[in-house]
Amino acid sequence: MNKIAGLFILMSISGFGQQNQDVEKPIRNLFLGMKNADAELVKSAFTEHAILQTITKDGSVKGDSLQDFITSVSKFSKGDLEERITIEAIHTDGNLASVFTPYSFYLKGKLSHCGANSFQLVKQNNEWKIQYIIDTRRKDNCKEIK
């Protein structure tokens, strides 16, 4: 009986780990696309009608167009943009996932700002995509993420 329980636990942990990797994939692709100035890889991370927002210093919320964001990434050279993240939490329920990631952002190798990203992802056609991202941005009290 103990061997069966142990096998069940091991299978559950393995499945959970794979699910987390699947959820993380579009997020990792987003930042890899930014680092490589690969607009197509960035675009592939998002749903067709994704929403991008930033919370400003005064607490208001500013929206960005996905197409404008993709266009801006394509104007940089490979290596100019690098966002380093730490995934602190992943929560899933069916075709919905929520991911929280503190980050440090580097522009041409220099720490520019930091903050946190909150991602909402949906599973479409058996693939996770970013539907919504909202972030904070600050220049003070930034910790470098390796």
TrEMBL record:
Pfam families documented for this protein: Lumazine_bd_2
InterPro entries associated with the record: FrzH/put_lumazine-bd (IPR039437), NTF2-like_dom_sf (IPR032710)
Protein name in UniProt: Nuclear transport factor 2 family protein
Lineage: Bacteria, Pseudomonadati, Bacteroidota, Flavobacteriia, Flavobacteriales
